[in-house]
Each structure stands twice: as structure tokens, then as C-alpha cells.
Amino acid sequence: MRLGLLVAILAAVMTPASGAQAPCPGNALALGTARVLAVDAASTPRVGRKHFPKTLPLGPNEVVLTFDDGPQPGSTARVLDALKHECVKASFFLLGRNAVAHPELARRARAEGHTIAHHTYSHPRLDRMPVAAAAAEIERGFAAVDSVIYGHAEGAPATPFFRFPGFAASPALLDRLERRAIVVFGADLWASDWTPMSPNQELQLVLARIEAARGGIVLLHDTRAQTAAMLPAFLHALNSRGYGVVHVVPATGTQAK
Ligand SMILES: [Zn+2]
User: Fold this and answer.
1) Which uninterrupted H or E stretch holds 91?
2) pLDDT tens-digit map of 154-207
3) Cα 223 to ligand 1 centroid, rounded to whole Å
4) For residue 118, how far is its CA from the centre of ligand 1 (angstroms)?
5) Which residues contact 32 (CB under 8 A, 6 or more apart)?
6) What digits encode the pLDDT tens for the residues 5-16?
7) 1 CA to middle of ligand 1, Å?
8) How far, in Å, is the centroid of ligand 1 from the Cα of 164?
9) Helix or strand or coil: residue 60?
10) Contact present, 210 and 63 (Cβ < 8 Å)
11) Phi/psi at 36 (nearest 5 deg)?
12) Gap from CA of 30 to ligand 1 centroid (Å)
């Protein structure tokens, strides 16, 4: 009896607090971040089933929220506000030129615990450029974002996560990124938020796709007002439908956790 009790106590003490979340200030019913997933190019060099054979090792009803093209005044702050209200961590694939133009927004995303990833300097179609020029554009993006966020840029990006503008990859560039141990993110689904529609239409569309896929890497754009507008309802719906948000962080690299 006493031994049984001791075992029970030890089990309770030693069980990792999976599912248990820190309280979310001001929102007892927050969605929260279900877990953190460390990602590296050795095990998953290219992820997202829309573009590659594999995706991240996610469970059923798990989503990874990713935002491209920012930061942008207005919409990015609204996106950050919505994420903060629900204590949800996401990944922002920044454009170098936008980080340079709006450094306070880029730094805010970082300060609020989001992953800062990369999306080139100025969003060209890299597959239509000479490889050397495309590689230089990618490097310029890494350097611009890291300089804004960390005050300096090393030879490699602090967070080795990259997404091709328009998903326009080429075999040579994919090989080059893999050799540098940079994870290339595609997506498992998206909100099609490049198409003008009402926030509610976008909400219904992305929720239907998430239900069909039972989760995955979700591509959104924090530059889109309609996405910023639907985000509070979107996060609320994920919560009520039992989805968990997975925060991807680099397993390697120098971005401090
Ligand atoms: Zn983009």
C-alpha cells in the first residue's frame, strides 16, 4: 500500500507535463501552444505535402501556423495581438526588405516568442533567376532579417528555416539549401488569402481544409487585412474543435529559445 502510494506519487512527479500549459494572462480559455517541435534539416530537409513528399511529424489535429511576407504596418500588429491573446506561438517568414522597413514589428514578433524565419529579401521568383543571383537574394534576406532582429548577421541564418516565394523552388537551390542544413518549408494547406474574400469566407475556407487534412502546416499572410480580421475567430474555432498548435523551433542554429 505504502509502496503503491509512493509509486503513484513518483509517477505524478516525474510525468512530463504534456498538455499542461502555463496560464495565459487575461484569457483563462486560451487556445495556447500545445507543444514545441524542434526541426532540423538532417531529419526533415523539406516539409509540406503540397510541395514535397514529407511533412513535419505532426499528430492528428495538430497545426503549425505560418505567416509569410511581413512585417507590414497594421495587419501584422493585429495578427500579433490575436496570437498574444490566445498565447499561441507561430512562425513568421519575413521578407528582408519589410524587416528593414519595419524593424519594430519584426522585433516585436521575436520578443513575443514567435519563430523568425526567412522568405528572401524582396520576393522574386527565384526559379526564373540565374542560380547565383537567386542564392544572393536568399542570403540578402537572411542577413537583413538577422541584422534587424539580432543586431548582427552571421554567415548562416540564426533560424535555418526558409520558404520560397510563390513556392517557386528549383532543384539547384533546393540542393544548395540542403547542403547548408536549411529546412525548406512548403505547406500542407493554405487559406488562399492572396485571393480577395471576406474574413468569414476565408475563415470557412481554411477551417474546411484543416478539417479535411486533419491539421498540418497552415500558410497564411500577415500582410493581408482579411487574414488579420479573421484570426481571432480562427483561433477560437481551432480551440473549440480540439486542435493543438505546434510551435516549430530550430533544433540547430543560434536563435535563443
Ligand atoms: Zn510570399
Assistant:
1) strand 91-94
2) 889 999 999 999 999 999 999 999 999 999 999 999 999 999 999 999 999 999
3) 10
4) 10
5) 21, 24, 86, 87, 88, 245
6) 555 544 444 444
7) 61
8) 7
9) coil
10) yes
11) -110, 135
12) 29
